[in-house]
Amino acid sequence: MERSLAFQVSQEEMGRRLDRFLQQQGLSLSRSRIKQLIEAGLVLVNDRRVKAGTRVKPGDRVACMLPAPRPLEAKPEEIPLDILYEDSDIVVVNKAPGMVVHPAPRVFSGTLVNALLFHCEDLSGINGVLRPGIVHRLDRHTSGVIVAAKNDSAHESLARQFKGRLVEKRYLAVVCGHPSEQEGLITASLGRHPSKRGIFSIHTRKPRDALTRWRVVEVLRYFTVLEIFPRTGRTHQIRVHLSSTGHPILGDPVYCRKRYLRRIEDPEIRKIAEGVRRQALHASRLRIFHPRSGEPMEFHAPLARDMEELIEALRG
Description:
Largest sheet: 9 strands, mixed
Shape: globular
Oligomer: single chain
Number of strands: 15
Radius of gyration: 21 Å
């Protein structure tokens, strides 16, 4: 069924574009989807139709009509899943490396959504026909814990938690080199690269705040295992932040340049490093508040086997 939502613009939100304002209200809708709703006249500001680029003012009343979800376009597929937890509201999965979270123009099957549609009787449709139940994502080659909503109320609760930075996330990564400190905080803002499509950078025309805390777990020859605590959830945040410090994630096809591996004098270790086929990044822990009970819940995903074997090989 369709739903009607209303928001009032605060003093702090003055001057924001309408599409960006709505994106920051915890609706878990993509910006392109919000623009479609605005162009269809399903978003009104003070009862008037406006454009996506309209700047909102304090006191403006923004009404949004969300149409009933269309029949799902993503198809159920019988794909094995490592389920860490499940109840009537959420399902928590240890995502395998190489699995895309949701269908996209170049990937129509084999995704986490396809697998969840087969596993679950129903998923929240609030996030559109190709991303039902998805409130956050992991890059294709990042393994680890991810939560999906099974109904709209759970979806909205989790979206608010992610937007309000109430969710705690922890990652493990194998990075090139040895940081000079045992821990640190990276505060560089991020945004799309000014000229390279699909790449993000700290050198951008539209920077967005980003915070990543890290600490050393284990020092290996030529490499270091880090524990990472992102406080924001920007696209490629951990990968870009670590690369910006001179310690990119081993195996990262975008942000780890080959020159880092050429510095390795030991031929055996260089061979191991050059054989890594994905960024050595794993989402190891996720802490949320249950959308129905409000109780804190913490989920742990054991380290992916390929990363376990990599770390063991680098130790040797």
